[in-house]
């Protein structure tokens, strides 16, 4: 039983690390898209943050998964934490698809 818990914990930590990678890519692509007027920030809270401080936008975007990772190394992961982490990962994959869609559109328009 301990082996399954350890494997589950490793999977959750890996998922959180992947979430950090996706949020970092999201922040970079969002910043690029906004600066070049291709997109706007859809999240109202992040939009306010971006418009007040781009540095804070990056810090918050990248810090949240790191805080989750730090939390996961200190406490026992409850089932709902796993569900929420994997749901977040799934949603960020969807966000990446949206980013690649507008990037493909921009590239095709500029040819």
UniProtKB/TrEMBL annotation:
The entry's keywords: Membrane, Transmembrane, Transmembrane helix
Residues annotated as transmembrane: 12-34, 54-72, 84-107
Signal peptide positions (record): none
Keyword Cytoplasm: no
DUF5658 domain location: 18-104
InterPro entries according to UniProt: DUF5658
Domain of life: Bacteria
Name of the protein in question: DUF5658 domain-containing protein
